[in-house]
Every structure is written in C-alpha cells, then in structure tokens.
Amino acid sequence: MKNKKFITLGFATVALAIFTLFSTNLFAEARDTKSAKVKRETSRLEALAKFTKVISIVEQYDVDDISIEELIDKALEGMMSNLDAHSNYLKTKDFKNLKVQTDGEFGGLGITVGIKDGALTVIAPIEGTPADKAGLKSGDIILKINNKSTLSMTIDEAVSIMRGKVGDPIDITIVREGEVKPLKINIVRGVITIESVYAKSIGEDIQYIRVTSFDKKVVDDVSDAIKKRKSNTKGIILDLRNNPGGLLTQAVGLVDTFVDDGVIVSQKGRHKSDDESYSAKSSNTLTKVPLVILVNGGSASASEIVSGSLQDHKRGIVVGQNTFGKGSVQVVLPITADEAIKLTIARYYLPSGRTIQAVGVKPDIEVLPGEVKTRTNEFTLKEADLKKHLEKELEKVDPKDNNATKKDDEKASKFIITPKMMKKDMQLKVGTDILKALIITKGN
Q1: Which of 166, 323, 328, 385 is the least crowded, having the fewest Cβ atoms under 10 Å away?
Q2: Which residues contact 349 (CB under 8 A, 6 or more apart)?
Q3: Could you tell me which residue, 332 or 97, shows the higher pLDDT?
C-alpha cells in the first residue's frame, strides 16, 4: 500500500514536471511571438514616420513649389515602378486609358511593348497593323516617341503617348541590332483590328495554324480549323511568332486541344490564395498528330505558356528563337474611384516547375530568321522550264487575262503556303521539314 502511494506520488510529480515544462515553453513561444509582432509593428511605424518626414522636408525646402498631392503621386510612381517592370501606379488619365484599351476602340500603332533590361522594347508588332507595315520588329528598342525620350518612361506612359486619333502621324526612334545608328520610323495611327487565327495548307497533309494574339475566340477558331481538315491532316505547324499574349484561359484551352492530361500551367504568389493550377482534360483533346511550334523573341506571356507547356509534355517540337520571358500575373486594384495600381501578384510555372519570367522558353531547335538560300544551275533546262517557256510564247498569240490570274494567285495564297513562300521563311521551312520527319517516324 505504501509502495502504491509512492508510485502514485511519483507519477503526479512527473506529470507536474511535464506540465510545467510545456507551460514554460508555450508561454515562452507566446512571449517570443508577441515580441516579434511588436518589433515588426515598431519597424513599420518607424518606416512610415521616415517617409512622412522626407515628404515634409521636400514640401518645405524644395526649390520648386510642389503640392503634397504631386509629391505623393511621384512617391507612388517611384515605389510601384521599382517593384518590377510590370507594376505601376495609374493616375486618373492612365486608369482611363487602360479602360479604353480593354473596353473600347482606339487609334494606335499595333505593337506590344515591355521593359527589357531597363529599356522600352517592342515585344511584337501585331500582324497587319500600321507598326507591322512600317517595319517595326520584335526586339527594337524604342529610344524616342516623337521628340520625347523613353528613358525612365513606364509602359503605360508610352502606350498613352502612342495611342491617339486615327490618321495622325507619329515618329518612333528605335535602336536595332545590326544598325550603326538609331532609325526614325514614321507611322500613321490606325484602328487596330486583329485577325487572331488563320489556317493554311502546306502540301496535301500538313496544316499551318497561325495565332497572332490570344483573344476570347482563339480556342474556338483553332478547334474549327482543325476539325475542317482533320481527315486529311497528318501534322500541324502552330505558329506563335510575334504573338504578344492575351487571355490565360485561351492559352490553357489551346494546350488542352493537344494534351490529354496533366498540369498545363500553374501560378504561385506570396499567399496561398493566389496559387492556382490548370490541368488538361482528355475530353477536350482534338488531335494527336505530330506538332511543331514556331516561336521567336516576340512570343510572350500566353504564347510562352503554350509553347513551354507543349514542350514539357513532349507533345511538340519547339523551333525558332528564345521567347521574350514574361511570366508574371498582374491585377489592377482601384485605390480611389479614378486611380488604381497595377500589381504583380504571382508568377507562372510550367509543368516541369520552371519559370518563364525573364528566362523565356528555349526552343528545342534554334533557327534564325531569314530566307532559304538556293542555287540554280543556269545551264540545265528542265521539262517544266521548257513548258513554261512554251506557255509564254503561246500567250503572245493568245493573251491571257492577267488580272484574273493575279486574283486567283492571291486567293490561293490565303489558304495555301507554296514552296516559293516557304523559301522566304527559314524558320517555317525548317519546322516543316522536321514535321515531315515526325510524320514518317510515326507512320513507321
């Protein structure tokens, strides 16, 4: 009995010791947590006090009489632009312009720009727009817009200046690789209308699909194009060159057209609530034919998600040049009725876990742009050449309607890529040759 009392007392003593130990640790942790929280709050208040003090000193002693509103605007602009190349503060005018850009019709040049290595750079001219027709190229660094330097200019400021009344001219001074001095290009603003998807045939069994930007109809238009020629198509060229991006949902949908399952892309932010993952569904897959994706330095954002995801899934061969490297997610957050901030809240990650931001997508096979150089033997007269010669002689006797022939050629070029057209595009030629090899391999 006496032993039992000692045993009971022993257990009670041990339990009390354990309780005391855990209580001490919990109180210590609570104290440390509270201390860290107080320290953070103190540091935050000190930082805000420093900011307020600097504002007060500048307002009182600066050589120019600057209002407190102007100082705050300048401070906000500086803070946001120093976070990253895509975050910025939108004043009333900038916020209004952004709404016009997304909701209305406007006169512009038809280029997408970004900040690369600290310089305002052309990501891509949109096909068929005034900028494209004037000769602006992906990678051109914009030095001046009219007579205004672009140094320290934000993307939204540049876009605001370039947008204007339809028919009004604008001068863009650029620095281009390979040119000894800056080039001045005069462009007349126009209404920007974009044909986002068009399809053509290469030979009898290859389908060429060009996507110029990711608007809300891309997946539907590409799906329609594939279905129309599905019975005859043995391979597809997906051309994303000079495609500056667009809607994430359309990029995900386009990959889903070619991929059965697995992650297409994920976005990760500072908070778990910003994280999101997008996966493929077999029910959305339309075709499993061999695929080649063409990219270049003008392929950005959504284009990089598509090309990089298809590359990671080993669904297609990526051909061309390294892409632009914009893999971040921005949101516009209003701070007043007329002002807002554009803030980067997450980054995109491809299925393999690699990021696109500032790195881009490296092609499986690098091919520089240019024409295919061919040599002809002037001393060889083929049967086809003789036939053409005889046809020309016959035309002298019985003239053809040249206008009708020209119209037929133009109509054909809208739906067919001829060998002659292919020779003017080295990247397309190499991509097509690779696709033909893939088709033969799959057939075996």
Answers
A1: 385
A2: 265, 266, 267, 268, 327, 355
A3: 332
